[in-house]
Amino acid sequence: MTDCRHSNHITILQSFGRTVCHVPTDELRKTVKLGTARRKLEFEGASILVHDFMFGEPRVKFLAHWIHHRDSGEAIKAVLRPRAETEEGDLDEQWLIYLIAAINFFEDPNIFTCDIADSLVDEFLAFLERGGLPHIDRIYELCKRSCGSEILTSVFASVFIHRKEQFAQHDPDCDYDRAVQKHMQRWLADVLVNDGDWSRLPSQFQELSDGRDFDVCFHHKHGRDETCYFDGRISKSG
Fold first, then answer.
1. Beta-bridge mates of residue 21
2. How many domains in the chain?
3. How far is Cα 75 from Cα 78, in angstroms, rounded to an integer?
4. What is the overall mean pLDDT for the chain?
5. Pick from 79, 74, 191, 180: nearest CA to 126
6. Contact by Cβ (8 Å): 24, 7
7. pLDDT in the model for residue 88
């Protein structure tokens, strides 16, 4: 059972009828577009709901850990077996494939709000920052083959801009560079035409010495006036 913060209103999460974990009901409602609960118990001002999800136990565990931590990296660690020891600098394909599968599943707007997908995109950016860039061709290949949506398109475009100076010296020489150059979104064209509006890029792809602010939610799907999942994580930890 995933131990979440104390609440008088708890929802028990099941996978095909099997109890997996529990979460605070109000936090679950911020993340999942729920239908009618399978069962509801009330006593002494407290309530317990039971929701039976028609997807596997690992995904239910991921959901519960994400609701508790609002951190996709922590949720992945909770459900993914540690990989065997490998050489430092090797690409962790198992982790990347799991993250792509999670994006494909949790991006469904009919079931989930955009918070989990936004968090997964941030985890992908952190993955690149932690050492993924040397493997960018292989990463692009895996994403192109496995990602069921275009949610990572702007992320790859950010890397493209990061390597803009390199591309100015010679033509793209790999599938990743050629694909982004061919299919770049309109915002990327605007950035290039305006000679690099770095303020619109995430911090890890921005020249930090220029002192400009940047939009940390640029790759997120939530509306400009909607609260970011990251703000909710800060408020929970504060």
1. 13
2. 2
3. 5
4. 76
5. 74
6. yes
7. 67
